[in-house]
Amino acid sequence: MKQAKYYLIIGFFFTSVLGTLSHFLYDWTGRGAVIALFCPVNESTWEHMKLLFFPMMLWFLFMKEQLRETHPPLPAAYMAGNLAGTLSIPVLFYTYSGILGRNVPAADIAIFFICTFLAFRTSWILRDSQYIYRRRLMIYILTGLITLMFFIFTFFPPGIGLFAEP
């Protein structure tokens, strides 16, 4: 279990750093279509959810091979944590900005780190959950759907507030 904890702690820092860098990657790479799939293309809340989702998924691809045999429930717990953290971004953003009537850049940055912590903490809490393990197919399908939605909505965003730039 110590090994799983180590991978989750390192993953938090990996995701935090890569997520921060990916905020700028789209512009740094000349606004390429492939990069647009994985990095924010504008300042909308939806696009900023990519800052957590894809770096955490990249860490997962590394981590799952290291821990699959010794911790079978961990991949499903990890994806559940990623979904929880990613979906918390708009909840926290719209809650605080609705209360204040405006958004504050420092609070937006703090939300990213809070949600990244929440994602990894949730993964840790669920790491041995047989309930999550038995529902892993549903979690994998939800993760796949969110991924597909990120890809489609990058180029064809719906006309609702989540996709609008603040």
Major beta sheet, specifics? none
Rounded to an integer, what's the Rg over CA atoms? 16 Å
**What's the multimeric state?**
single chain
What overall geometry do the principal axes of the alpha carbons give? globular
| End-to-end C-alpha gap | 42 Å
**What fraction, in percent, of the residue positions are helical?**
over 70%
Output the structural class. Answer: mainly alpha
Would you give an account of this structure?
With 166 residues, the protein is mainly alpha-helical. The chain is globular and about 45 Å long. Helices cover 77% and strands 0% of the residues.
Keywords:
0% strand; 8 helices; mainly alpha; 166 residues
Task: Record the SSE blueprint.
Layout: H1 2-28, H2 33-38, H3 45-48, H4 50-67, H5 74-100, H6 105-125, H7 130-134, H8 136-155
Helix pairs in contact: 1-4, 1-6, 4-5, 5-6, 5-8
